[in-house]
Amino acid sequence: MAELLLGVDAGASNLKIIELKEKKGQYSLKNIFLRQMTPGVIVDGTVLDHGAAAHVIKECLAHAKGFTKDAALGMRGRDAVVKRMEIAWNGKGNFQETFVWNADQYIGIPSSKATFDAQLLSYDSGKGFADAVIAAANRDKVADCIAMAELAGLKPVVVDIEALALVNLTSVMFGRKKHPNALIDLGHDCTNIIFYENGFVDYVKSIPKGCKFLTEEIAQDMDVELEKATEILRDKEIMTNDVDAQAAAMSFGSNLGAEIETAVETYMSDRRKEPVDIHLCGAGANIKMLVDQMEIAMRMSLPALNPFSAVDVPEQMKPVTEKAGACAFAVAVGLAMRRA
Fold first, then answer.
1. Which phi-psi region, left, alpha or beta, contains residue 282 (left: φ > 0; alpha: ψ -120 to 50)?
2. CA gap 61, 55 in Å, rounded
3. Which residues contact 134 (CB under 8 A, 6 or more apart)?
4. Contact (Cβ atoms closer than 8 angstroms) between residue 56 and residue 35
5. Is 27 exposed, middle or buried (0-12, 13-18, 19+ CB in 10 A)?
6. Quick check: 107 and 116 in contact, CB under 8 A?
7. pLDDT, tens digit, for every residue of 203-223?
8. How many other β-carbons are positioned within 10 Å of the β-carbon of residue 277?
């Protein structure tokens, strides 16, 4: 069996690295690392300073022993596309090659500037259409991600869009459910709503509102610098007890929840499907006041996706999972379940 990869999720706010062991189908945590990323090093999934990002990765791994250097890297950003759709095909020849010739009209990114893939799910010979999941990302953005990892001494084996990593995780945790579900990934730069079914991404809706915008509201409402506002957002005690911090989180959560509800309703109308289960993940899922207001706005419960419910975590590693909150590691765990 192929070896598991080192899951590297480098975001604008934090770097998360996960390494798993597997025995008889059961996962256990071998290594876990968490470091803050210097602001401006990674923005909207684009690595702007390869050396600085690689330095943070090296710092994480400096004292680790016996870890694999074969890595699965996470990709994010509004120009990383994953969606399920029907593609015209006559059933002849290689589907991948046919898709390449017509990729521009499906991915919204010029094929000359994109790295892309298409997975054939089924083919209807009567209609002449293939049901497929397509994924694409800016080629330069992928190259930047790979360069960052190589500078850190890693060997990139897989570059995975975060939506695919998260659905991979849910497939391991819950199995491949034959009904639509959704994940709400509350990230730093944006919030992604990932609709998926039977182990495959169906559609991803990106809302350009992430935790950095909440940080800006806290800074404005409390009249503090952004750096101080970031510290406040990370401090559970302040977020629980400070009236101004709570007010900012409540306002942001209410507005974001309303936008997510609209996105879900649009999906239901367009696809004629209704998500059965909706879970939250990402660092924002650990901010209680934010989640509470989202639940009020959406009039529903939004349980957190705990990736470690499918992984045995040694006692000495639990403080790391608790520091940022388990939800923040969801993409990294999904990446770490990839194989070479």
1. left
2. 10
3. 81, 82, 83, 84, 85, 87, 99, 106, 107, 116, 117, 118, 119
4. yes
5. buried
6. yes
7. 999 999 999 999 999 999 999
8. 14
- Residue type at 239 in one-letter notation: M
Are 219 and 232 contacting, i.e. CB atoms less than 8 angstroms apart? Answer: no
- Write the burial class of residue 137 (CB in 10 Å: 0-12 exposed, 13-18 middle, 19+ buried): buried
Count how many Cα atoms sit within 13 Å of the Cα of residue 84 in the half-sphere of its side chain. 20
Alpha carbon distance 271, 340 (integer Å): 35
Q: What are phi and psi of 85, to 5 degrees?
A: -160, 165
Q: Is the dihedral of CA 37, 194, 81, 260 positive or negative?
A: negative
Those residues whose C-beta lies under 8 Å from the C-beta of residue 115, and which sit 6 or more positions away, are 136, 137, 138, 139, 142, 159
Per-residue pLDDT, 216: 94
- Between CA 231 and CA 302 the distance in angstroms is 25
**Residue-wise pLDDT tens digits, 264-303:** 999 999 999 999 999 999 989 999 999 999 999 999 999 9
